[in-house]
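User: Second chain of the day. Same drill as before.
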Amino acid sequence: MNHRIIITIDGPAGAGKSTLARRLAQALGYRYVDSGALYRAVAWQALETGVDPADRDDLSRLLLSFQPDIAADAQGFQVSAQGRDITRELRTPEVTRASSQVATQPRVRQWVGDVLNLLARDGGVVAEGRDMGSAVFPDAEVKFYLEADLDIRAARRQREMQGEGGKSGLTGTLQDMAERDSRDQNRKLAPLAIPEGAHYLDTTNLDPEEVIEQCLAIIRENLTAKAAGCI
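Assistant: Same format as last time:
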């Protein structure tokens, strides 16, 4: 089973994409690729240079010279810019808000897609995001779509933010996520949707280990079939 495939994981925030993607990458020895970190990196650069995250023309000019260093492997996804590791800075509330704005811009989405395809050119990638299996890697060999009840997703995100030093309350987190869901599902460009051929998993009542085992079984079945020349 030496064939190295592209695996995509899509779904709304808090559905468990990051945990699943990291664990699958570690189990398979694949690269873990976080598309959201790339949108956040553009937002970070915009804030650093005084560019309006909603200004299409200024963002296009910014991207002409923005070349962050990216380290992607089975252990994680790190982004460096201006000579320093900015991975943790990408999770601040300010960058999070700005990333929602830059993600609506076609040129930014094209830039992110180009970077992702470069990282995945040799296969052996687990890519997580909101349009990985539908827009960026529509021909990925294995696709997953994760979902969970909004209340559960908000509680998960709240615990994550508290671990990172965030101070937002659960009510605020719930409202922010509901608004983000609406924007993602209703945007004209690559809206959040279940990709064609994706395996759907509702993680509301599943612990991470159950999700990982289910997904690994599907992946191994695919790899076995490829090795046998069945697909």
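The longest strand covers residues 76-81.

User: Great, on to the next one.
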